[in-house]
Amino acid sequence: MQILVTGGTGYIGSHACVELLRAGYEVVIADNLSNSSAAVLERIERIAGRAPVFYKLDVRDAEGLRLLLKRHPVKAAIHFAGVKAVAESVADPLKYYDNNVNGSLALFTAMRAAGVKHMVFSSSATVYGAQAVSPIGEQAVTAPVNPYGRTKLMIEEILRDLCIADPEFRAVALRYFNPVGAHASGLIGEAPQGTPNNLMPYICQVAAGKLPELQVFGKDYPTPDGTAVRDYIHVMDLAQGHLQALDYLERAPGFSAINLGTGRGTSVLEILQTFERVNQITIPHRMAARRPGDTAVTYADPRLAAELFGWHAALGLADMCRDAWRWQRQNPDAYA
Q1: Is the link from the previous residue into 135 a cis peptide, with omega within 30 of 0?
Q2: What is the DSSP string of 265-283?
Q3: Which amino acids are annotated catalytic?
Q4: Is 228 helix (H, G, I), strand (E, B) or coil?
Q5: How confident is the model at residue 97, as a pLDDT?
Q6: Of 60, 87, 95, 204, which residue is 20 to 30 A from 252 by alpha carbon distance?
Q7: How many CB atoms lie within 10 A of CB 86?
C-alpha cells in the first residue's frame, strides 16, 4: 500500500516515515525542504532498511500534486507539511494562512481528483486555546489564540465539511501536545533553525554548550514547583499513533479529532532535573518572569485514542530526555 506523506523530511514526518516503512508501507514523500534537509532521506533508509520515494514539491503546487498522484496510486495521505512557529505566525500571519490553509486546499483538491479518500492530518493542541481546563478532552471548546492555531482549526473544519459532502472521504485530525525526543538510533531528530522555540531542543543546546543557559519562564505558577506544566510525548509514540490512525480509517467513516498525549503533566523543572539525571550532565539555568499568554497547566485526556484504535504512549520522560541528548551529541549541527 502506498502512502503519501507531505512534510515527510521534517521532525515528526521523518519519524512517521520510518515507522511506515518498517510496517511494510510504500512511502511517497512530498516536501519543499524549506524547514528540513534532504540528508534525512538517507537516514530514513538506514533505519528502515528501505527508501521512500521523494519529490521536492510544495503542497501549494497543484500541478505537481496532480502529476505525483497520477504516478503513484496512493491509498491515503498523512499531511504534516506546514509552518509551525507560534511567534512567527503572530508576526507574519499571511505566511501561515498561505502555507497551511492554501497548501491544504491544494492537497485536498488533488486528492479528490485522484480518488484518494483517506487523510490523517497533523493537527495540534493549540486549537484548544489558553482557557481549556486540563485534562483536555476532545469535547473542549476550540478557541485558538494565534494564527498558527487558527490555521490548524480551519483545516480541521475543511476536512469535516469534506467528509459531510463525500461520505466516502474519511479523515482523522490528530491533536498532539508537546512532541520531544528522537529516534533511538540517534540518526534523526528535531533540527530547529536558529534559536530553538521549544524547551527540549533548547535544553539540548545548552547541554552542548551552544547556548549559555536555560531561562525558565515563570516560577510562581500554581503548580507543585511553581513552573509551568505541559504534556510531553515521545516522537516515536506520536509516529506510531499515525499508523494506528491509518488502520482506524479503514473502519471509521466521517471525521474524527483525536488527542495524542500522555495524559500526564510535567513541569519545566521536572523535565530539566530528569534530563540532568539520566544524562549525568548539569544544565545552567535561571528563573525569569512569566511570558505573556503562557498557561499554568496544559495536558491531554488521551482516552479516546485508546478507545478508538488502542493507542497508548509507551515511552516515558527518561526515554525522551535520553534520546533527545543522544541525537544532539551525535549531530551537533543537526543535518549540516
Answers
A1: yes
A2: -EEHHHHHHHHHHHHT---
A3: 148
A4: coil
A5: 98
A6: 60
A7: 17
